[in-house]
From TrEMBL:
InterPro entries: Ala_racemase, Ala_racemase/Decarboxylase_C, Ala_racemase_C, Ala_racemase_N, PLP-binding_barrel
Species this protein is from: Alteraurantiacibacter lauratis
Keyword NAD: no
Gene behind this protein: alr
Enzyme class: isomerase
Highest taxon of the lineage: Bacteria
Domain spans labelled Alanine racemase C-terminal: 229-349
Catalysed reactions, as listed in the record: L-alanine = D-alanine
Entry keyword set: Isomerase, Pyridoxal phosphate
Cofactor(s) needed: pyridoxal 5'-phosphate
Name the UniProt record assigns to this protein: alanine racemase
Pfam families from the UniProt entry: Ala_racemase_C, Ala_racemase_N
Length: 349
């Protein structure tokens, strides 16, 4: 028998109730449209194992991943789930896998349409690029015979700037309507999380929230509806006394002005706590602020705990994860904060 693994020194509490409530709020805000769920990148780092059952229970039925490698994990938790693969089919092997799993590719180009047809085809989704210029067939290509012969379940487009009051939003809305008039389809889908906040015009039949499910706030209109889902904590692994004039961490970027006490905490940039999240930031314990001192290392960060005599090895400190605030102070996006969380957290829900 392998030895029993001791408890992790990094943990991620996932509030399933908050996640389910976020999906229901987004479904409600989607009006007559249903809300789906973007579950790519292991549910934005939250963990498919924890997030998918909550989403399913809340009522989500339409799931979006980016890679074929993400399909099996989703199917394991939701057998028979409606899954769409956003990257579509770039090879016959991917098309064969789609057919074998019953998962729909999102066709993104005439080349992909040809690959899908050569593989035998069948029901698929179709992405129309209305202005993000990333993936998707152009409006001009919609009349192409390769597109005409597709059997389109969901016709999609994707907003480039839904989190801003950009003129591009209305342009993309209008082009989406043009696309819908040009291609036979069962359902039409445009809005991501931020797009849901743009109003009923953008919702069509199906919305595709991702970020907001996991507690991200893409537009201020959503702030009152979205709850924090992810709560990271890391353990104190050493407490030290540092004399005046001593420095802390790589490259000695911090020097103690006076004698002080520090705690070394078991989280680093390998856990998504990048250097930009250390500067000027503080961790917390029982509501007390523990300012970060010196550079963030790969596996550790040092905090000032001079004012907090009882903080000891084995205590868990809270890592700030109010996504809009941490994004603002670190310069990372809310998406990056979630998806860089890493594998060393013991996820609890
Ligand atoms: C990731 C993604 C979404 C979800 O977007 P959020 O901004 O996270 O809500 C929706 N649609 C497509 C095509 C995506 O790639």
């Amino acid at each position: 028998m392998p030895p029993h693994l001791p408890p992790a020194t990094l943990r991620l509490r996932i509030d399933r109730q908050a996640l389910a409530a976020n999906w229901r709020a987004l479904d409600r805000l989607s009006g007559k449209a249903r809300a789906g769920a973007a579950v790519k990148a292991d549910c934005y780092g939250v963990g498919v194992i924890h997030a998918l059952p909550a989403l399913l229970e809340a009522g989500a039925r339409d799931f979006f991943v980016a890679h074929w490698s993400e399909v099996a994990d989703v199917l394991a938790h939701v057998p028979g789930a409606q899954i769409s693969v956003l990257h579509g089919v770039t090879s016959g092997a991917e098309a064969a896998y789609a057919l074998a799993t019953g998962v729909r590719p999102v066709i993104n180009s005439l080349q992909q349409a040809a690959i899908w047809r050569a593989a035998g085809g069948g029901l698929c989704d179709l992405m129309v690029d209305t202005g993000i210029n990333r993936l998707g067939v152009s409006l001009a290509e919609l009349g192409d015979p390769l597109v005409k012969q597709l059997s389109v379940h969901t016709l999609l487009s994707h907003l480039a700037s839904a989190d801003e009051d950009s003129a591009l939003n209305a342009v993309q809305l209008e082009r989406t309507r043009q696309a819908a008039a040009a291609v036979a389809h069962q359902r039409l889908s445009l809005a991501n999380s931020a797009g849901i906040a743009l109003g009923a015009d953008y919702a069509f039949d199906l919305t595709r929230p991702g970020l907001a499910l996991y507690g991200g706030i893409a537009r201020s209109e959503l702030a009152d509806h979205i709850r924090q889902v992810v709560f990271p904590q890391a353990m104190v692994i050493q407490r030290r006394r540092i004399g005046a004039g001593e420095s802390v961490g790589y490259n000695a970027t911090f020097t103690a002005a006076a004698d002080m006490e520090t705690a070394t905490v078991s989280i680093g940039y390998a856990d998504g706590f990048l250097r930009c999240r250390g500067a000027g930031a503080a961790l917390q314990h029982c509501g007390q602020n523990l300012p970060v001192r010196g550079r963030v290392s790969m596996d550790m960060v040092v905090v000032d705990c001079t004012a907090y005599a009882t903080l000891s090895v084995g205590d868990f400190v809270d890592i700030p994860f109010d996504l809009p605030n941490v994004a603002q102070s670190s310069g990372m996006s809310q998406y990056e904060l979630l998806t860089t969380l890493g594998k060393r957290f013991s996820r609890i829900s």
